[in-house]
Design brief:
This protein is mainly beta. It has helices spanning 30-36, 129-135; strands spanning 4-7, 14-17, 23-27, 40-45, 50-53, 56-60, 65-70, 76-81, 90-92, 104-109, 125-127. The radius of gyration is 15 Å and the shape is globular. It starts with a strand and ends in a 10-residue tail after the last helix. Bound molecules: zinc ion (ZN) (2 copies).
């Protein structure tokens, strides 16, 4: 697979990803709802495969992860684990890439935490808060509230 390029709304931040997953995950947890304004979506990429240029700002949203955006236009860029088993792994927002780089929605986590007024259609996997936190017990330690 050839490298995929993406950019924020204003074009100040540019990314090149050597190997990008073709799978999208969506999250409805409280942090993702507040930060994204609704549904946070991500496409995984290994740290070594991502090149970024431009005015990136980073917020450490929990002991585990950081969230990044363009300092010029405010576009969301990624959620990334900074400690733990997936340290360095990017979850890049699909909107950075034309047609979400062809990736498709495969998983919706905290599915039971979504607002009652909308839902993602399709036959992707849906994981509840309880189910997710059972397999990811480290997620909510020291979370910013
Ligand atoms: Zn921008
Ligand atoms: Zn989340």
């Amino acid at each position: 697979m050839s490298a995929v390029s993406g950019h924020c709304l204003c074009g100040a931040v540019r990314l090149t990803v050597r190997t990008l997953s073709d799978e999208i995950s969506a999250c409805h947890c409280e942090m993702c709802r507040r930060w994204s304004g609704g549904i946070q979506m991500g496409i995984e990429a290994a740290e070594a495969d991502v090149r970024v240029t431009g005015p990136v700002k980073i917020f450490r949203s929990s002991h585990l992860a950081e969230r990044a955006w363009c300092d010029t236009c405010g576009s969301a860029l990624w959620l990334r684990d900074v400690v733990g088993p997936n340290q360095g792994l990017y979850e890049l927002v699909p909107g950075l890439f034309d047609n979400a780089a062809g990736a498709r929605l495969v998983r919706e986590v905290y599915a039971d935490c979504a607002p009652s007024g909308y839902a993602l259609a399709g036959d992707h996997r849906r994981v509840s808060k309880a189910e997710y936190e059972m397999t990811h017990p480290f997620v909510h330690e020291g979370e910013v509230r």
